[in-house]
Specification:
Layout lengths: L11 E5 L3 H11 L5 E5 L2 H10 L4 E5 L7 H11 L5 E5 L4 H9 L4 E4 L4 H46 L9 E2 L2 E8 L7 E9 L2 E9 L3 H25 L4 H12 L9 E9 L3 E7 L4 E5 L5 E4 L16 E4 L3 E7 L1 H4 L11 H10 L3 H11 L7 E8 H4 L2
Parallel strand pairs: 1-2, 1-3, 3-4, 4-5
Antiparallel strand pairs: 6-7, 7-16, 8-9, 9-10, 10-11, 11-14, 12-13, 12-15, 15-16
């Protein structure tokens, strides 16, 4: 017993016993072992002490006035389902034993009691309490570590994302705002917005197919690779949308899983009011012209990018008369609508047309959508004069 005294020093015990002589023995012996010894002379007093103090182990007699040990244990179990309760009893009643089992009494000590039976039971129970504490601490440490890793992961994702319009949203004759909200920490969406020169801006939105780590790694690889290629093109002053996509595919293709494909949108805005684009199975870009209230759609001009992709189609669009543009991943339009089997895509065009800015569009989306079902990324572009209204 002496070799194991340290196991008690951090624990508090509640002793409930109506026999003052027995209680004196408890107090004398346990004060040398436990951190604190709390006492009560019937079940009602014991329950009161339990509710006010931090108790780790309950040692109680069965037969007591006012409230017996099982009645007290029943009340304690309503507050704490796991605290160890040791019951001292003659074990003469089968009904009492059944009730004790139903209340998950941890251990029984049969009367007449001996010091050996008490200490062997206490040692077992104390070790169980400490084991539970260690397990809880380990779980908390694991949770803290997991949260820490999630924070680092999100920081890494946002570091890979480059947005040259983060501070000053104006570019050419437009303003640009981005909404980026992963469903989980690891996002299958990624985007970059880069200033190529005073005359041109590049935008890229990628949606890794599937869920989880694989899609997120692919999306991040695409953005990191695209940024590296763009840095070289800016340095050499030889930007080419087609060449950028070819170099990106050359790097990404060997890293794709079998049958894995990538959906992506590549946009290049020039000062000549032209938009060159290549879209690979992405949702249609929404746009509104100055002279029309109708929402027009710019559809994909390529199948998904894959390791076997050979040809790349780009299209040049005159955007002199376009006042608003919305570029997005499918997490936006394919989200279920509240209390309906419909998707938000049915309402997106109307909400986009009516929204004065990205905050208003987001407010409209949240009114329609109950739960976020996928990563959501969208780029809201409009004429400077509209954004100042």
């Amino acid at each position: 017993m002496n070799d194991n005294l340290k196991i008690y020093t951090s624990l508090n015990i509640l002793c409930v016993e109506d026999d003052t002589n027995v209680m004196d023995i408890y107090t004398t012996l346990f004060s040398m072992l436990f951190k604190n010894v709390y006492t009560a002379y019937n079940g009602a007093e014991g329950l009161n002490v339990f509710q006010k103090k931090q108790v780790d182990i309950v040692l109680t007699d069965y037969s007591m006035p006012v409230m017996n040990g099982l009645q007290m244990s029943e009340k304690i179990r309503e507050c704490d389902a796991g605290i160890p309760i040791i019951l001292l009893t003659a074990l003469e009643s089968l009904e009492m034993l059944r009730t004790a089992i139903d209340l998950r009494i941890t251990s029984f000590i049969k009367k007449p009691i001996s010091s050996q039976s008490i200490f062997s039971t206490l040692e077992f129970v104390a070790k169980s309490v400490l084991a539970d504490r260690l397990l809880m601490q380990a779980q908390q440490q694991k949770l803290c570590y997991s949260n820490y890793q999630e924070t680092l992961t999100y920081q890494k994702e946002t570091t890979i994302i480059k947005n040259d319009l983060q501070e000053n949203k104006n570019f050419l004759h437009f303003t640009c705002e981005v909404f980026y909200q992963p469903k989980d920490i690891l996002s299958g969406d990624s985007y970059i917005i880069r200033k190529i020169s005073d005359d041109g801006y590049f935008m890229f939105l990628v949606d890794g197919m599937g869920k989880g780590i694989s899609a997120a790694v692919t999306a991040m690889l695409c953005s990191a690779s695209a940024n590296n290629i763009i840095n070289q093109m800016i340095k050499n002053k030889n930007f080419s949308l087609t060449q950028l996509i070819k170099q990106l595919l050359e790097f990404i293709a060997p890293n794709l899983l079998e049958e894995e494909v990538i959906c992506a949108t590549f946009l290049y805005f020039s000062s000549k009011e032209r938009l060159e684009y290549a879209m690979f199975s992405m949702p249609a870009i929404l746009c509104i012209k100055d002279d029309s209230n109708d929402v027009a759609k710019i559809k994909s001009n390529n199948p998904p990018l894959a390791s076997y992709t050979k040809s790349i189609n780009t299209t040049i669009l005159d955007i002199k008369k376009i006042s608003k543009i919305l570029v997005f991943s499918d997490g936006l339009n394919e989200n279920s609508v509240r209390n309906s089997s419909e998707f938000y895509g049915k309402y997106l065009g109307k909400d986009f047309k009516e929204a004065k800015d990205i905050n208003e569009l987001e407010a409209k989306r949240k009114k329609q959508v109950f739960d976020q079902e996928d990563d959501i990324t969208y780029i809201f572009i409009q004429r400077e004069e509209l954004s100042n209204i």
